[in-house]
Amino acid sequence: MNKSTFEEELDKKGVLVYTNTGDSMFPLIRKDGDLIVIKKAHTPLKKYDVPLYKRDNGQYVLHRIMKVKKDGTYVLCGDNRRSLEYGITDSHILGVLYSVIHNGNEIKMTDFKTRLYTHVWCDFLFIRRFIILVFDVFKLIKKQIKKTKR
Q1: Does the predicted TM-score (pTM) go above 0.90?
Q2: In this predicted structure, what is the pLDDT of residue 12?
Q3: Domain 6-149 fold
């Protein structure tokens, strides 16, 4: 079986469905379980869209647009991340998240609950950063405790 790239799949079919492998978009997308449906992007995108893009180093990333700058570049951040990424342009964008399939249920990005989550989670970035920091500290403490028990 021949493997194709994300770009080839989107060019050929206009849609890409695959299992998520990272945790940067948690809690919306769960690692190693949720299927994500990406549709070919029609740029320019807007704030809160979740593009699949390819960084200059070749890494594929799915993060949310936090701001569209006046020069047309995007400022992005994963829902489970604290830092923003700058300098992403339309040329980096491959597709945009259409839906997430979690436990057999399709969650469209246009659904009311999803849009509400998006606004609450993104519009209060300073609170989100604090929440994620607290969880990161707890994970670090837990890891240190396990290490000392060995």
Answers
A1: no
A2: 93
A3: Umud Fragment, subunit A (2.10.109)
